[in-house]
């Protein structure tokens, strides 16, 4: 069997097309990496080896982590809203009102952080004005509508 110049050229063309296809696929993976890093609020470390398999595993891990963070924030928010609702409606749960309100604010902050694509560490300092301390439930205000009450932010 003899190899003709046309057969060699066809093989070279096929190799070039394959190379271009791999480059396009890699470019798509890098765009996915960028979007997932921005939208998912997850740092994606570069893989040890620059292979499609390693890059795919890194992106899959980041996607799972991002989804888990969002699901946890939604679950926390739902749980806090239910707790707050019970503390405002059920007479036997009225004593939990300040703690339920604080849990709701923390859950809202966590959800807001995910929406704004920022990752913050929960406050730990006792001097932090964002943190409620020694809350006391004095009763429900009759002079104010609940929808008018907002959390004050430190400036």
Can you characterise this structure?
The chain contains three helices and no strands. The protein is mostly helical and 155 residues long. The protein is rod-shaped.
Helix content range: 55-70%
Domains (count): 1
Give the number of DSSP strands. Answer: 0
Residue windows where pLDDT falls under 50 for at least 5 positions: 118-125
Helix segment count? 3
If you compute it from the alpha carbons, what radius of gyration comes out, rounded to the nearest whole angstrom? 27 Å
Largest sheet: none
Strand content: under 5%
Termini separation (Å)?
A: 82 Å
Structural class: mainly alpha
What's the shape? rod-shaped
String of helices and strands: HHH
Mean pLDDT: 83
Structure summary:
With 155 residues, the protein is mostly helical. It contains three helices and no strands.
Offer a few descriptive terms.
155 residues, mainly alpha
Please outline the helices and strands.
Elements: H1 5-40, H2 52-89, H3 97-115
Helix pairs in contact: 1-2, 2-3
